[in-house]
Amino acid sequence: MTGGQRACSSLHLASTPRGSDHRSSSAEAYLTPVENERSNLVVLVGHTATTVLFTADESTGLRSAYAVRFAPTPANATAGPPSQEYIVSADHEVILSAGAIQSPALLQRSGVGTKHLLDVLGIDIVVPLEGVGRNLQDQAATPLAAGSTVNDTGGTRVLDAIAFPDVDALFTFGALDGGANVSETISSDIPGWAASQAAAGGGVSAEALETIMRVQAHNILHDKAAVLEMFFYEPAPDGLGMNVWGLLPFSRGDLSVTSTNPFTPPAIRGAYLAADIDLAVAVAGARAVRRLLHTPPLSEIVTQELVPGTAAVPDAGDGGSDADWAAWVRSAYISNDHPVGTAAMMRRELGGVVDARLRVYGTQNVRVVDAAMLPLQISAYLSATVYGVAEKAADLILEDMRAGGR
Ligand SMILES: Cc1cc2nc3c(=O)[nH]c(=O)nc-3n(C[C@H](O)[C@H](O)[C@H](O)COP(=O)(O)OP(=O)(O)OC[C@H]3O[C@@H](n4cnc5c(N)ncnc54)[C@H](O)[C@@H]3O)c2cc1C
């Protein structure tokens, strides 16, 4: 895994804290060491940024953020608009790090987004930017389970074992046809997926999404990035779990604010499994799990498949039909809570929202530094990459400040 092999498997030792052990966090690693020493740092919890305020810069034609409005976060998630708001002014720039759901929502409420959406809500347009909130890529996860003869109440063994198969390994092992033509299918079906996903609102145009998806396909077919995570774990003393989730979906969702009330959550269209290849990956993964449960040495400790079980997905000796697996996957999948891409670093005509220095197009001094800027889903968990994005952003900000003589 650390040797550059992208499709691989790994064993994770349990990292549950014992005794005086504890897990670190981004706050502990980055904030705690400086929070009592820096006189120019204020951390305000329990408050929500509601709008970024802009002025026009006549000399550049760009919009410049001069302040951010914020309000106490209400305890009630269905609260009405804030009764009291505050304004903090921005001397240099505004950095949004509210995550892949809330950063684009904050941009939209501030007048940066699709003209049609802003018009409908009566929000003054600051920068018409079609990509804000589009290109949403989450990962759909499907949990399977089996009974086991092992009673591991002590929890002393390896907790997790994870396989990251590439497209060839996955379909060879998990597809009824052994993966015949999967590479050709991915290459030839991209225009159709791009058209359907763009028409539903997941991209600014079919042409733009096709360009992006061809990069993604190169990653999958040429560079052999893992397309699926198969996560084996022990959910109960006498049970085994196997979660499968597609890592690099071709489905594209979108999100939009539905109100000028900053406490009204945005409407999210996840578009999970909307592109048929994403469903095919999930089905191949689920069938592969069933095969593994019947294969030694795992089969030696498995008593029976519990979820989905052969009542839901009958097995006539072939591991189950595609249609039965697809119906079950559609009923059982959940979000993996890994949204990315909604304020992506890409060319503006592709639906990009930020440039290569993470600045929002059309603005002079607003950056997005969080998972929203990733243009494509990654073949892994997200946190480490988001830390990398933040470290890189810190360098860019320092460089720009120094270049400006500050
Ligand atoms: C249940 C769960 C389990 C996960 N497990 C893992 C895992 O095991 N490994 C892994 O690598 N990744 C995991 N992830 C994914 C990972 O946590 C996220 O990808 C990552 O935190 C994204 O970072 P971010 O900075 O983009 O957004 P976030 O971490 O969501 O940070 C955004 C912050 O902004 C705040 N905020 C939002 N709106 C506003 C506003 N208007 N004003 C002020 N503040 C605002 C939020 O409260 C939040 O603190 C998990 C996610 C979830 C939800």
TrEMBL record:
Gene3D superfamilies to which the protein is assigned, alphabetical: FAD/NAD(P)-binding domain (3.50.50.60), Glucose Oxidase, domain 3 (3.30.560.10)
Superkingdom to which the source organism belongs: Eukaryota
Region of interest: Disordered: 1-27
Official protein name in the record: Glucose-methanol-choline oxidoreductase N-terminal domain-containing protein
Statement: the UniProt record of this protein carries the keyword Signal: yes
Keyword annotations of the record: FAD, Flavoprotein, Oxidoreductase, Signal
InterPro entries the record matches: FAD/NAD-bd_sf, GMC_OxRdtase, GMC_OxRdtase_N, GMC_OxRtase_C
Listed cofactors: FAD
Single GO MF descriptor: oxidoreductase activity, acting on CH-OH group of donors
Family (UniProt): Belongs to the GMC oxidoreductase family.
KW Oxidoreductase (keyword) present: yes
Residue stretches making up the Glucose-methanol-choline oxidoreductase N-terminal domain: 99-113
Pfam family, one: GMC_oxred_N
